[in-house]
Specification:
DNA polymerase, domain 1, Rossmann fold, 2 domains, single chain, two-stranded antiparallel sheet, five-stranded parallel beta sheet, alpha/beta
Length: 253
């Protein structure tokens, strides 16, 4: 669940053609799952246990600002973080409370608070699954290869397993194991390599314009923009089953 920031304006490119779709890549946070309660409420709750009083709306605003301004981890080719991007998350949490409080948390307070937050978001119960996810995956898994392509870390596998979703996917490709985060092309190349499939036989499904749509476009992979309620996974399944691929985001030829 690594930050991407804002992206350029995009709109669907409309084509009527037969798409040899064999493999579907799914983003995770915002597409399959979402926090079970607002992040600001969770941060404020755990902060209070450490004697730090902050209003949920204040920490939520700080989180949004820091999230947007923080660049995702990027390592040289062939290298990844030894700590599964844990230190990146620790820095982000520290920056959130600095912005919310106007002063940094004492190191001892931040250390204990971060450990609790990090463990909390590793639990399946900290996340909810969108209502359209299981029906869509059950349908598409019948005759398509499904992979997860997510800006997350190794905690994601246990989260998906805890919600009964992991068995739908052939592979779970996460940014902490690639050493780069969407929209970086290394993520999409890792997905194509895992699928052993050309880009035009694949479809990437996600909710973020920059991470998912622009990232897929730059790697010449068609994409579907999840924008609930009008454009959920039920719409995706309908397009796939009817062959009505108009409205997908297609790489410019």
């Amino acid at each position: 669940m690594i930050s991407c920031g804002s992206g350029r304006e995009t709109a669907p490119v409309f084509f009527d053609l037969i798409m040899p779709l064999k493999t579907v890549f799914f983003d995770a946070a915002g597409t399959l799952i979402s926090p079970a309660e607002p992040v600001g409420s969770t941060y404020a709750h755990f902060a209070a246990r450490h004697g730090v009083l902050v209003k949920p709306e204040g920490v939520m605003g700080a989180f949004r600002e820091v999230w947007k301004a923080t660049s995702p981890p990027l390592y040289p080719v062939g290298r990844t973080a030894d700590d599964d991007d844990r230190e990146w998350w620790r820095s982000l949490v520290g920056a959130v409370f600095l912005r919310a409080l106007g002063q940094p948390l004492p190191e001892s307070t931040l250390s204990g608070l971060f450990d609790e937050l990090y463990f909390h978001y590793a639990q399946p119960e900290a996340w909810s699954v969108f209502d359209d996810v299981v029906p869509a995956l059950s349908d598409l898994a019948v005759d398509h290869r499904l992979l997860v392509l997510s800006n997350f870390d190794r905690r994601l596998r246990d989260i998906l397993a805890g919600h009964g979703l992991l068995s739908f996917f052939e592979r779970v490709i996460i940014s902490s194991e690639v050493g780069a985060a969407k929209p970086h092309p290394r993520m999409f190349q890792a997905a194509l390599k895992a699928a052993d499939s050309p880009p035009d036989h694949c479809l990437h499904v996600g909710d973020d314009v920059r991470c998912d749509l622009e990232g897929a476009e730059d790697s010449r992979i068609p994409s579907f923009h999840v924008k609930r309620p009008e454009n959920g996974l039920d719409v995706l399944v309908q397009k796939v089953r009817t062959g009505a691929y108009s409205g997908l985001h297609w790489p410019l030829l």
